[in-house]
Amino acid sequence: MHPVLEDLISLLKLEQIEDNIFRGESRDIGSPQVFGGQVLGQALSAAQLTVEGRVAHSLHAYFLRRGDINARIVYEVDRARDGGSFSNRRVVAIQHGRPILNMAASFQTPEDGLEHQAEMPDVAGPDGLKGFEEVARELPDCVPMMMRRFLTEKRPFEFRHVRPVNFEAREKLPPVAHVWIRAVDELPDDPTLHQNLLAYVSDYELLGASTLPHGLSFIRDNVIMASLDHALWFHRPVKIDDWHLYSLESPNASGARGLSRGQIFTQDGKLVASTSQEGLVRVIDPGAAQKRSHPKHQD
Asked: Among 38, 106, 203, 250, which one carries the catalytic annotation?
């Protein structure tokens, strides 16, 4: 298996240190704090370790503080309810004695029911589109070093944007984006692992849709963005080592916050998951941006 993907799978396998208490490592992916998708994936993994015979169908999380890349994260799980068909878990992720994320997740015993879904957007398939690594290699010299590192870091997923990425452009675009995603290598046939990895990757790209109508240039380093919350619904089984279309839209931006929604489709058009996220989107002068990007800053 590709070593970057193998490392991510290892990262999602938590150590149990007490009943309902688990511990996980962190990885530096080039951002000044722990990647939110990592904490989501690990929190879901912690909840899954307390449930038997039921599959996650939704999670709702709030990001409370920046995660420290150099510290382990402790996950405390509250077994809130085990009913006849559904189980609910509350998870708190803790570093340095303080919560960095609260999450609620719901699980259901698999059963058949009514079926309908949204239509998959009619966009170009992944074949022939530039991969993100190829786009990153073409970055202009003016891209700040921290951003260059984040964009060129080896990732456990492939990303292919239907609309070409241009970090220098100041063009104002409709708040819609489409990105093809898949794991960089074949994965074990473990449904919970595929759900955890989908939770991880669902935090990529999502908030960026809310910036598209405003012609922001990210190479100027004066845009502060941070996820505030994240919701994810699993509709159907997912195999994240196959291509999936992440279809994104942003219905609103106001109050220095952007709202984005996403739908995740298989290549043959099945809707497997939906997402939503609100995040901080603050445009400030470059000097203030540098100060506020310090890892110790808390908004």
From this structure: 203
pLDDT tens per residue across span 18-35: 999 999 999 887 777 899
Residue 68: give its domain's CATH number. Answer: 2.40.160.210
Q: Per the residue annotation, which of 33, 106, 250, 277 is the catalytic one?
A: 277
Token output for 11: 């990262």
268 labelled catalytic: no
Distances (CA, A) of 170 to 2, 33, 112, 147, 219: 36, 27, 48, 18, 11
Does 203 participate in catalysis according to the annotation?
yes
In a domain, 51, yes or no: yes
pLDDT tens for 49-100 read: 999 999 999 999 999 999 999 999 999 999 999 999 999 999 999 999 999 9
Domain ranges, residue 67: 3-109+129-292
Active site residue 42: no
Query: What does the chain come to in residues?
Result: 299
265 assigned to some structural domain: yes
Cα distance between residue 131 and residue 154, in whole Å: 12
Catalytic one among 26, 31, 227, 247?
227
Tell me, yes or no, whether 34 lies in a domain: yes
Domain count, the chain: 1
Confidence band for 222, pLDDT divided at 50, 70 and 90: confident
